[in-house]
Predict the structure.
Amino acid sequence: MRLVEQKSITLNSTVAPLIDPFLKKINGTSMLELWNGDTTIEKLTIYQLLHMQGGLNDYDDHKMTEWTIEHPNDNYSPLDYLHALNKTFMCAPGTCEFYSSNGYEILGFVLAAHYEAEDWDSFDWWKIFPENLRSEYFKNTKFMKPGTCRDQDTVHTYLIAIDNQLPGLKLTSIDLDDDSCLNGWGFGNLAASASDVAKFYH
């Protein structure tokens, strides 16, 4: 919305032209190539992605959880999400609302491209916040980078697993402190104290 206010983009801007040069540089592909030649992807707009109206599938949360447990030393990058995404559309962009985290992943690439980041992992998310907001509202907030939660000095995060094979429900907690803390990059890499979140939203 700051870029819209600055007239760098509009809400009706299509995203493919905004990020194709960046994707070519870091991944050797365009949006059209990632979507196997389906030109529907070239019709996606900023507005549609912000409002979950892009018609995109969401990632498979169960498979992502399994992958995280099985690959404790690896990061699942935003490019991994785009490559793994089911490229069929739930509907034509703008004709339905369907929750998809990948829409915000794509918007993350729009920001990284606009600010001319060298790669997705070098993009400084703080660039999207005015300096006065950073100092006033975000005293205990960080954007997580590739690497474990332990390495980035966060409180422990736990995965709660339910085992339905036993009588009743058995809950098991799995400490993710030694797993990747990247958490989707464009859709979940913010770590903040309760006080920072409450103050910002208030």
Q: What stands out?
A: The chain has nine helices and four strands. Residues 71 and 179 are 8 Å apart (CA to CA). The chain has a mean pLDDT of 92.
